[in-house]
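Lab meeting, action items carried over

1. Structure of the two-component assembly. Owner: GW. Status: complete.
Input record:
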Amino acid sequence: MNTEQCLGFKAAGVHAGLKKEGELDLGLIYSETPAVLAAVFTRNQVQAAPVVLDRQRVASGRSRAVIVNSGNANCCTGNRGLQDAERMGAAAAGALGIAESDVLVASTGVIGQPLPVEKIEAAAPVLVEHLAADGFDHLARAIMTTDTEPKQVFRAGRAGDRPYHIMAVAKGAGMIRPDMATMLCFACTDAEVPQAFLGQALRRAVDASFNRISIDGDTSTNDTVILMANGQSGARLATAADEEHFAALLEDMLLELARWIVRDGEGVNKTVEIRVQGARTPAEALQVADTIAHSPLVKTAFFGQDANWGRILAAAGRAGVALDPDRLALYFDDVQMVAAGVGCGPEAEARATAVLKRPTFAVTLDLNLGTATARLLTCDFSLDYVRINADYRT
Amino acid sequence: MNTEQCLGFKAAGVHAGLKKEGELDLGLIYSETPAVLAAVFTRNQVQAAPVVLDRQRVASGRSRAVIVNSGNANCCTGNRGLQDAERMGAAAAGALGIAESDVLVASTGVIGQPLPVEKIEAAAPVLVEHLAADGFDHLARAIMTTDTEPKQVFRAGRAGDRPYHIMAVAKGAGMIRPDMATMLCFACTDAEVPQAFLGQALRRAVDASFNRISIDGDTSTNDTVILMANGQSGARLATAADEEHFAALLEDMLLELARWIVRDGEGVNKTVEIRVQGARTPAEALQVADTIAHSPLVKTAFFGQDANWGRILAAAGRAGVALDPDRLALYFDDVQMVAAGVGCGPEAEARATAVLKRPTFAVTLDLNLGTATARLLTCDFSLDYVRINADYRT
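Predicted assembly:
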């Protein structure tokens, strides 16, 4: 018996026929009682139909269920796509016996093909039959696209004397970058959380996690993070300390999912933390880190396990932030490669080469202009990334 | 006898020992008489020593020679690097018997390793001995890094009754993007061109060519375009029509080199022109085109010959330009894939798949918001790109 449960929440995943080979492709998360809601959506201006629908429905601040499919993004599908998203929600609502307005919808997969909504409607009753308190693993599998493993995390917290729980599942893989990605994350807690604070906590956690990772710089039309709280544990966030404890737990678990998403990114062999320090402002630090984290030349060098620090300095130099090249210092983990803008020589190169062989390491660039810092998690750019994305639709 | 010559200009390329296997790695272009000069350099803030040196020397508006090596970028090499760049120029000046201030210096290759300037000094007299009016092919070979072929173009023009000539060589390959790249271009003309106009014409030609191509979004620390005019043909640009004719010839030849550079980019199988139209402003059109041209997901789909138009719309949606997704139209060459933000269906897909198999094609995105347009030349993102750049230093 799995003890990792959120009281009053159930989940399920079934095969509706959208993906090949009988893989799970339709998931549901359901609260037996009304729940308050917070959500964060993609900032991409091209938004999938389910995102358009959800943006309307989350305004109420309440929800009971999320139905989600993989295999088709229901994006760039026009009015029919919106109707299909509504039908998908209605199918869940009907099978659950709740109001349509209490159901959110999410999709992930190929853009621009009509959603085979009839398959979803046919599978909805079966999906509801499969709902179980320990069904989150099936849900996590049902939202996978090129992910190689389901991603589920769990935390237990306390408010006053009472324990509560937070559960979250996510999918990522490609199209990951700050400001979200084709990443979906569904989280729930049985704590009793004021709706306004739930939104603050989620925004903070997303900014510190999913908005600090990058696979390839592309963002998606479908990114969605949804968090529901139903209070069924009886644990109420009554004090500022309770709220901080909850927010920290949530941030920590979303960060775990974010790191997992990068590690399981398409064709990823290395996860690399880009740290920029000594910047004049946090925004400038982030801009430099972002440019390094997205440089194909830097990322292919990571793949080649090549301590090609010149490419990192060149990326920083084109970031659009005023630098003093003669002040730059660069480190691979604790090995200093560059001091005052000049390479530290063959011994440093040899030591750095050992760092590059690690599956995970940090690149620290010190601009020596101020005290602001930024961190981003990125990955190498591999042959498999190209293979996966060249063949994605075939 | 090669008739493609610029009167009074000679060029050479020799092996100085910076590259492996006896490849040409040191080049020289020389005007027998004083020449006026225009130059454009990288906007990257991390600038190689030869770029720093040249920026000082071009202020005079006059030059006689450019010495250039491949195999080492002489970048992030500190004070020693600046001294090495000066020694490299002095070696050419000494062997040519001209003033050091009349020599420009360029380098391309790996960043961060000391330049073996002694090899260049030893080879300089041999280099000068090899100078010949038809030596531009050797020069073109001497500046290659991962280029697979030397790139040389020639044009003949007329001013009044007199013919003149323009010759240019270039190297590109990796690290190409708008605002230049590790690309070098050396051009010369025997026309008599006012120095101020030479600069205008070069800026216009570079903006229309090298600043409109992209291989991987990375820019270099060493980008340099130099144009010398020595007037030895006796053809003088005396009228506005003469100037326009010259500027158009120059733009056309640099565009030919730019397209060649993309076609010969690292691991490139497809050259793709990204055309954005119907934008509110040219800057917004360029921003959308730039985001599409650099999207790894778009470029891997090109490699896979997959008409995955959803990725193109998704890239446009994150470009930071206000769009109306319901107005978007997309074409692969003349095949319309998207109308009013919605895919045009299986027949369009089938026809587009045929377009994607072509070695070169155009992607046109119409925002339907205004009349501004922009064009960029990009390429696919291939397995070979990753292979080449993972192993570049080994």
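2. GW to write a short summary for the group page. Key points so far: Confidence is low (pLDDT under 50) at residues 175-181 of chain A. Residues 9-261 of chain A form a domain with the L-amino peptidase D-ALA esterase/amidase fold (CATH 3.60.70.12).
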